[in-house]
Amino acid sequence: MRRVRIHTAQPLSVDAVISLEAAPAAHVARVLRLRPGDRLWLFNGDGHDCLAVIETLDRRRVSLRVLERRRVDNEPPLAVTLVQGVCKGERMDWVMQKAVELGVTRVVPVLSEHGVVRLSGERRERRRQHWRAVMIAACEQSGRAVVPELAPVCDFAAWLQGVGAATGETRVLLHPEGGGALAQLPPPRGGVCLAVGPEGGWSASECSRLQACGFSPVHLGPRVLRTETAALAALAAVQTLWGDWGAVPVG
C-alpha cells in the first residue's frame, strides 16, 4: 500500500492532536478519500516523519492524533544550490518538482536578460508561493522530510551582488559552448552552485559577470538542452559524481 505523506506547518509531537490546514485537509478528505481510523504520515520540514491517525473528518476539517515520530535520514550529503533563470509556466514547475526529487538543497529563481517571463511586485511573491507548493508536493512524494529552501525571486544583478566570494563552493555555469565537461572539475570541497539560464540562455554580459564571480563554464555534451532539461541533467550528474548516487560522498 502506498505510504501517504502530508505536509503541515504545525509543530508535531507524540500525542499531539492537530487540525490540518485547509488545502491538505481537502486533499485528505476529497482526493484520497480517507476516513476516521485511517493512518498517514505527517511532516513539517524538521527532518522527521510522524505517524498519525485520523480522529475526525468532514469536508472542511481533518483532526489527527500523532502516534509516533521518526527521524528521516535521506538528505543528500552534498549541498547543491540551483540558480534557475525563470522560465515559462509548466517548465518552471517541472524544474522545481524534479529538483526536489534529485536532492537540491536550495533554489534561487532569477529574472535574467534573455528570460521571457517578467514578474514584478506581488506577482513575484505569488509565483514563489506557487513554486513552494510544488516543492512541498514533491517532498510528500519523494519521502524527503526537509523542504529545500526557495529564495525570493530576484533580478540577476541583485542576486549576483549578494553572491560574494567562493568559500570552497564549486560554482558551475551551464553553457552549450562551455569550456569542459562537469566530470573534469575537481571534487568540491564544499557545496555546488549550478547557474542555469532561461529559455534564451544567459546573455554574454551575464556569462562574463558569472565567470568573474568564480563560475566555471561547463557543457553537458554535444547537444543543446532546453533549460528544464539542462537543470535536471546537471543535478543528476552532480549526484552521480559527488553526491549519494553511488559515488563516494564528499565530506
Largest sheet: 8 strands, parallel
Q: What are the segments in which pLDDT stays under 50 over at least 5 consecutive residues?
A: none
Overall pLDDT score: 91
Rg value: 20 Å
Order of helices and strands: EEHEEEEHEHEEHEEEHEH
Description:
- This protein is of the alpha/beta class.
- The chain folds into two domains: 67 residues, Beta Barrel (Ribosomal Protein L25, Chain P); 162 residues, Alpha/beta knot.
- It contains six helices and 13 strands.
- Strands 6, 7, 8, 9, 10, 11, 12 and 13 form an eight-stranded parallel beta sheet that branches.
- α2 links the parallel β6 and β7.
- α2 packs parallel to α3 and α2 packs parallel to α6.
- The protein is elongated, with a radius of gyration of 20 Å.
- The mean pLDDT is 91.
Short key terms for the protein model shown above:
alpha/beta; Ribosomal Protein L25, Chain P; 2 domains; 251 residues; 29% helix; Alpha/beta knot
Short description:
This protein is of the alpha/beta class and 251 residues long. Helices cover 29% and strands 25% of the residues. β7, α3 (122-142) and β8 (149-150) form a beta-alpha-beta unit.
In terms of topology, how is this protein built?
Blueprint: E1 5-7, E2 17-19, H1 22-31, E3 39-43, E4 48-57, E5 62-71, E6 80-85, H2 89-101, E7 106-111, H3 122-142, E8 149-150, E9 154-155, H4 156-161, E10 170-174, E11 180-181, E12 192-196, H5 204-212, E13 216-219, H6 227-241
Parallel strand pairs: 1-3, 6-7, 6-12, 7-8, 7-9, 10-12, 10-13, 11-13
Antiparallel strand pairs: 2-5, 3-4, 4-5
